[in-house]
Design brief:
127 residues, mainly alpha, 3 helices, 82% helix, rod-shaped
Length: 127
């Protein structure tokens, strides 16, 4: 009878240790995801998208009139939509609504960077 009790105590101890280890790993992952989200969504992804948009615009001399409407739409979807989608993906474990908020933050930051920093402050784009 005492062997069964010892086995039961040992099994419960192992289960508790595994549970603590799993909780520690989950907390570490959540912290890493939170840091990545706060660095990438409002800062790095909008900066990369805005830099790509401004590079294409500056490369074309500030005028995309030679491009077809579909090409311009695809360019906008790529440089504006891709960073927003990546932000939403980074926030995927934060509920149902929060990823949309992070995508909106990224999109609005990117638009601000393109227009206010790129076109107004740096005077890139059309002359």
């Amino acid at each position: 009878m005492s062997e069964d009790a010892d086995f039961s105590v040992a099994a419960q101890t192992r289960i508790a240790a595994r549970s603590r280890e799993r909780e520690r790993k989950d907390a570490k992952r959540a912290k890493r995801e939170r840091i990545l989200l706060w660095v990438f969504a409002p800062l790095l992804l909008p900066a990369a998208g805005a830099a790509a948009a401004l590079a294409v615009l500056e490369g074309e001399g500030g005028d995309l009139s030679g491009w077809s409407s579909g090409s311009v739409g695809l360019l906008c979807a790529a440089v504006l939509g891709l960073p927003a989608a990546l932000s939403a993906w980074l926030a995927r474990r934060r509920g149902r609504i929060e990823p949309f908020g992070w995508a909106a933050i990224t999109l609005l930051m990117e638009i601000a960077l393109v227009f206010w920093v790129g076109l107004v402050l740096l005077e890139l784009g059309p002359s």
